[in-house]
Structures are given as C-alpha cells and as structure tokens.
Design brief:
With about 300 residues, the protein is an all-alpha fold. Helices cover about 70% and strands about 0% of the residues. The protein has one domain: Rhopdopsin 7-helix transmembrane proteins. It holds the Pfam family Fung_rhodopsin.
C-alpha cells in the first residue's frame, strides 16, 4: 500500500499536493474515466462471444465438454466481476489525478475496491491459464506430461499469492486501505504487484512454447505436426499484451499519482484479462469452423499442405 504521510483532509483538499504550477481541479478535472467505462463494456462482450463459441463447440459440435470448459466459464465470470469493480473505482477517483481527488472520497474506498478488483483479476487469469494447460493435458499425446503439471502448480501458487495480497500486506489489515491509520506496518506492495506481472509474462511464455517442447518427438507428418503446434500455441498469444501490461505496472509502482497511473495500467490489465479468455478459446476454433465454415478450413488446409510440399 502506498504511504503518502497523510492525515485527514477537507473535501476541497486533494489526496496529495499538485506538482508546482498546477492547481487542483475538483469541478472538471482531466479524466480517463470515459476510456475506462468504454473499455469495460466492450471487452466483456468480446470475451463472452468467444467463450460462448467455445462452450457451443465442445458441448454441441464435438460433445467433449471437460473441466477446462468450466474453467473458462468461471474465468469469464470473474473477469466480468473485475471489470465491474474497476469501473466502480471511477466513483472514488480512478482516472483522475490524485491531487484532483478529495481525500474523503479516496480514503477507505479506492484501495479497498482496488484490492477486490485485483483478486477477481488474479483468479480469472489463473483459471484461463489452467483451462489452456488442462486442454494441453487432454489432447497433447506425449506422456508423462511433467512440464504441464509443473506449470499448473506454479500458476496456482503465484496467482493465489498475488490475488490475496491484501490479506497479508498490512498489520492491522485495515491499514491497507485506510491511510489515516498510522500504527502498524505494511510490506512494499509494488514488489508483489511487479512479481505477479513478471510471473504472468513468464507463464504466458511457457504456455506459448510448451506445445513445441511436448510435440518435438511425436511422430506425425510434418504439416500435421506444424498445424497441431500452431493450434495449441494460440493459447499463449496474450504474451505481447502481458509484456505491455508489465511495463505499465512497473511505471505505476514508482509514481505516487496512483489514481491516474493505475487507470492507464489497469486498462491494459483488463485487455490482458479478456484477451487471455479469447486466446484460451482459440484452440477449439477449428471444429467450429469445420462445422459452419468448411470452405475456410479447406482453403487454409490446402494452401498449408501445398506450401509444405513445395518446401
């Protein structure tokens, strides 16, 4: 939790002093709030579309519903909860400069709801990654699959540590969100946040390249093996967004203007959150296309095979 050395302030005084030459604006301040709200309306709808197509494909077309499908449904519900709480934070200053936010509006509300948002975020990311890994475990042919099981354990451990940081970050626990409490102590929350971001990026990299590692010794025709690897690697395509999100998180951790910086960083958190769900749904997309758009699959297949044969 950030420490600003603050005491209780009046409604007309911001949480922190403004930079030199800047006058606090409590009437019509610069704002990112409209971007936050638009983002958290569009992204859940996009991820819902892909999650629905996945459940439809495994439930109706292939009739192969597994625990990974339930995980992706749970991930989407948690992602929507995170997006909702993230939008709610605009009531307590998110998207405004911290010197434009009255202390009474911010204190006791902003960090508390930010912690709830982070918990939903971390659990949603965890279940989307687990969904991909369980899918690997179900369909990739090589056994034993120690690399998959090891990655599952790592994902669960760091996700729980990051998601429930607020439970152990401060003593007393209320000090985490109430800046008027001067007794007790807190750990350095930016380190936990950056740690979670680094682990997200690392595990995204593992998920991206794990199919290559597992399938490298499997005996399949060359074009078939490449196609299988590409299909399985779609689950890790969120890596690029994960790297951008990590960069914005590192920048936010060193900036006291957390209501503004966490808005910019948080938008990338939400993009990563819902993109992870989309990526987790892509590996089953071939069955959907083959059922409803067979010409697309046939065109891609023929070009891929002919290209491989020409090589």
């Amino acid at each position: 939790m950030p420490s600003f050395g603050l005491s209780l302030r009046e409604e007309t005084v911001g949480v922190i002093p403004p930079p030199p030459g800047v006058t606090p604006n409590f009437i019509n301040p610069p704002s990112l709030q409209h971007i936050i709200l638009i983002t958290n309306i569009i992204l859940p709808l996009v991820s819902l579309l892909f999650a629905t197509l996945r459940i439809y494909t495994t439930g109706i077309i292939t009739r192969s519903v597994g625990i990974d499908d339930y995980m992706i449904a749970l991930s989407w519900l948690l992602a929507c909860a995170s997006s909702s709480v993230f939008s709610l934070l605009t009531r307590y200053g998110l998207g405004l400069h911290l010197w434009d936010v009255p202390f009474s509006t911010f204190n006791g509300h902003f960090i508390k709801f930010a912690a709830i948002c982070g918990t939903f975020y971390g659990l949603s990311i965890m279940f989307s990654k687990l969904s991909i890994l369980v899918l690997f475990q179900r369909y990739l042919p090589q056994k034993p699959k120690k690399a998959i099981y090891a990655t599952i354990v790592v994902v669960i451990l760091y996700s729980l540590i990051g998601s429930f940081e607020w439970l152990y970050a401060c003593r007393p626990i209320e000090k985490y969100w109430d800046l008027s409490i001067t007794r007790g102590s807190c750990i350095e929350w930016p380190k936990i946040t950056v740690f979670s971001g680094v682990m997200n990026t690392v595990t995204d990299s593992v998920i991206l390249f794990l199919p290559i590692f597992i399938l490298r010794k499997v005996r399949l025709p060359r074009w078939e093996k490449i196609g299988l690897v590409l299909v399985m690697m779609t689950g890790g395509f969120v890596l690029v967004i994960s790297i951008i999100r990590l960069k914005t998180t590192v920048d936010m951790a060193s900036n006291p203007d957390i209501t503004w910086e966490s808005a910019r960083s948080g938008i990338w958190w939400m993009i990563e959150l819902h993109t992870a769900i989309v990526c987790a749904c892509l590996p089953v997309g071939k069955a959907f296309l083959r059922k409803h758009f067979p010409c697309v699959v046939d065109y891609t297949f023929n070009n891929f095979v002919h290209g491989s044969q020409n090589d």
